Amino acid sequence: MNNQFRDGKIKEDVKRVIDCHLIEKGDPIQIVELCWSIWTKYGYMNVWYYCDAANAELTDLMKVRWNESANWIRAEDVSPGNNKIIPVTFNTRHKAMLYDLYLMVSKDYLAVQPKYDKLITSLRTA
Fold first, then answer.
1. Which residue, among 2, 84, 87, has the nearest Cα to 47 in the 3D structure?
2. Are the CB atoms for 1 and 14 separated by under 8 Å?
3. How many Å apart are CA 116 and CA 113, to the nearest integer?
4. How many CB atoms lie within 10 A of CB 35?
5. What pLDDT is stored for residue 1 in this prediction?
6. Phi, psi of 9 (to 5 degrees)
7. Residue 19's CB: how many other CB atoms inside 10 A?
8. φ, ψ of residue 116 in degrees (nearest 5)
């Protein structure tokens, strides 16, 4: 969302959570199909998937489904410019990612609908 009017000011680039699914120990094939259904539901645009690079099997399944090259060794080998499935090294980037999330939430750049109460609780405890 761009140009959102809040508190008498225009906020640029607010990210909206418009779909949310809780997955507990899901089957990789079901996860890929769920992600594909989200991808097609929203018209193939503005949807990227950030996958744990430590789980290369799931990342490769996703890349095959999206017809992207599964020829990567390090997360840095995959460019977000021409890929929708992006591996991320959470084990080395977790602190920076949590800080970025904190800034996004505290500056009102993230909009989450109240019906996603479990996500809201998770964000508050992160």
1. 84
2. yes
3. 6
4. 21
5. 45
6. -130, 160
7. 13
8. -95, 55
- Contact indicator for 112, 119 with CB cutoff of 8 Å: yes
User: How many residues belong to the chain?
Assistant: 126
- Judged on CB neighbours under 10 Å (0-12, 13-18, 19+), 22 is exposed
The whole-angstrom separation of Cα 51 and Cα 29 is 14
Kind of pairing, strands 110-112 and 15-17? parallel
CB 34 within 8 A of CB 47: no
Positions in the chain short of pLDDT 50: 1-3
Would you state the structure tokens that stand for residue 51, as one six-digit string? 């996958």
| Element at 7 (helix H, strand E) | none
Residue 60 has a CB neighbour count (10 Å cut-off) of 19
